[in-house]
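Hi team, as promised in this morning's meeting, here are the two structures we talked about. I've kept the exact order from the run log so nobody has to guess. The first one is mostly here for context; it's the second one we should focus on when we meet again. Sequence first, then the predicted structure tokens.
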Amino acid sequence: MMTLNEVPTYIKAKTPELLVKEMLLVNYKSGRHNKYFDISKSGDYWYAWFYNHIKLDPSELIKKEEPKQVITRSRKKTNAVSKK
């Protein structure tokens, strides 16, 4: 079951064997079994996508919008002399 704190992310490796090692390492470091999906090769790398659980209160992401500053530029008057 997915939660609001899970976002898709990926790991990559040069070979399928190294990708498996990276997958196991991510599982070990996170202390959970990640369900990997869309394992594919693109260019020189193998990629495995999974949902990463972020330990963050989603309300912390919502901030009050600061008022936008309007920047005005003053034009300098020049004494241009036209040549005829």
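And here is the second protein, the one for discussion:
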Amino acid sequence: MVYIDIADIVPRFNRLILRMLKMNKLLSTLVISAFAMAAVSAFAGSHGGAMSDKDKAEMAEKCAKMDPSKADEKMKADCKKLAETKK
């Protein structure tokens, strides 16, 4: 007959419980960080340099006054992009 000493079981059980608690903390930390990164990226994406209505109106005025022969390539590209978004 095999006798099991309770002194052998308790430390193993305690180690198992501690390991489970550490894994639970790790899992919850990973889940929280995933939600935080999703929230930050959504916030950054919504504020990613889009022009406001006031800026669009100012750009439309500049494009209307622009002389195509004297304008640089960036200004021409911006006006073309603005015209495409209006369509």
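Starting points for discussion:
The helical segments are 6-46, 53-65, 73-86.
Residues 25 and 31 are 10 Å apart (CA to CA).
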